[in-house]
Amino acid sequence: MDSILVRGNGPLSGQIPIAGAKNACLALMPATLLSEEPLTLTNAPRLSDIRTMTQLLASLGAEVTALQEGKVLATSCHGEINPRADYDIVRKMRASNLVLGPLLARLGHAVVSLPGGCAIGARPMDIHIDALAALGAEIELKEGYLHANARGGLKGAVHEMRFASVGATENFLMAATLAKGTSVLKNAAREPEIVDLARCLRAMGAQIEGEGTAEITIQGVDRLHGATHPVVTDRIELGTYMLAPAICGGEVECLGGRIELVESFCEKLDAAGIAVEETARGLKVKRKNGRIRAVDVVTEPFPGFPTDLQAQMMALLCTAEGTSILEERIFENRFMHAPELARMGARIEVHGGVAKVHGVARLKGARVMATDLRASVSLILAGLAAEGETVVSRVYHLDRGYERVEEKLRAVGAQIERVKGE
Ligand code: UD1
C-alpha cells in the first residue's frame, strides 16, 4: 500500500488548478441512465471514485468511455439496461445509491444494494426511500437490497424531506424529470453540486426550477436527450488547497475557485487571519500577519460550513493561538483524524460531536494513518505545518477524491512524495 511522505514546509507560492467536483460528477454520471442518447461531461476529475461509478454504470449496461486528455467522460445508455446494482460495487462507495432514482424513472423498477455503514457514520437511506415513495414507488428491503417498483410509472408529487439530504435530493430530482406531472421538493439540499445536476438535466431537456433554493419544482417530460456539460469546480478540493498557504505561509492562487462556492469557509478563514482575494482566474490566499487565531466552526448543510472541510480546518486550527471548538452536525463519527493529529502533538479533546482544539505552537512529524478521504488530506496539511517528517499511510482513501495531490502541492513548493508500497 502506498503512503505519502511530507516534510514540514516554509512558505508556498504559485498556482494550483482545481479539478471538476467529484461529488458533482458522481451525481451527473448516473443521469446517463435517463436517456438513450450520449451524455458528455467535460472537466471530469480523474479519481478512483469516478472509476467505481464507471464500473457500476457499465454493470447496468451503460457504455462509459475512459477519461481522455482534456478530461472528457462520455456515457451512453442506448441498449438494454440491467436494473440491479450489485453489493460488490455499491459497498465500495455510497454514491452508488444515485442510480436508484434514474433506474426507477427509466425502467419503472430497480434493485439496488444498501450501501452499509461507512467509517464516518451509519448513513441510512430512509430519506431517499421516502422521497421516491412520494413519487409512487413501492420500495421493499429484501436480503440487503432495495427492490423499488413503480407500476404504471412515477407520478409527480409534493414532498418535504425531514432533512436536506444531498443524495436524496439528487435521486428525487433525477426520478422526477421523467415522472408524469409536476413534482415539488421542499427542504431540498442547496449544494452547488445539486445546482450543477439541475443544469445538466435541463441541458438534457428536463424542466426544473428553483435549484439552489430549498424548493425545487420539476415538470416531468416524456424523454430526455443527450447533452454536453462541464462539471462544476470542486469546492472541497478548492478549500483544501486554500489551507496549504494558510498553514505554511506564502501565497497560492487556486485556479477556477470562486467565492460563492466556499463563502462560509472564507468567513472562518478571515476570522482565523487568512486573506482571500478573488482574481480573474481564481482565489488568491495568503496568511495575514502573525499566528493563526482560534475560531469556532459548526458544520451544516450548504450554505453552512461543509462537513467535508472540517478535518482540514482542524489541521489548521491545531497551531492556532487559543482554543477552537468544532461541532460536527452532519455525521456522527467524523473526528477520527483527531487521535492521528494528537500523534503529531495536537491537543484535541473530543466529546460526542464536539472537538475542542487547544492550539500548540508547532506540530511534530509522525507516522499516522488515514481513516477516510478528508481525514487523509488533513494529515497531509498537518504534515506541512509540522517539524520533521510525517508519513501518512492508507492513502487509497486519498486517491478516491484528490487527483495528483503530490504533484499539485509540489508545484507550489511543498516537500511531499508518494512512497510506493508492495
Ligand atoms: C454527500 C457528499 C458527501 C458529504 C455529504 C454532506 C456525495 C457523493 N457525497 O453525501 O461528501 O459529506 O453530502 O454534505 O455527494 N441521512 C439519513 N438518511 C438518508 C440520507 C442521509 O439519515 O436517507 C443522513 C446521513 O447519515 C448523514 C446526513 O443525513 O448523517 C447527510 O447525508 P447526505 O446529505 O445524504 O449526504 P450524502 O449525499 O450521502
TrEMBL record:
Record bears the keyword DNA repair: no
UniProt entry keywords in alphabetical sequence: Cell cycle, Cell division, Cell shape, Cell wall biogenesis/degradation, Cytoplasm, Peptidoglycan synthesis, Pyruvate, Transferase
Positions bearing 2-(S-cysteinyl)pyruvic acid O-phosphothioketal: C118
Ranges of residues in domain Enolpyruvate transferase: 7-409
Record GO biological process: cell division; cell wall organization; peptidoglycan biosynthetic process; regulation of cell shape; UDP-N-acetylgalactosamine biosynthetic process
Matching CDD domains: UdpNAET
UniProt: phosphoenolpyruvate binding residues: K22, N23
Main location: cytoplasm
Catalytic machinery residues: C118 (proton donor)
Function text: Cell wall formation. Adds enolpyruvyl to UDP-N-acetylglucosamine.
NCBIfam families the UniProt entry points to: murA, PRK09369.1
Protein name (Swiss-Prot/TrEMBL): UDP-N-acetylglucosamine 1-carboxyvinyltransferase
Organism, as annotated: Rhodobacter viridis
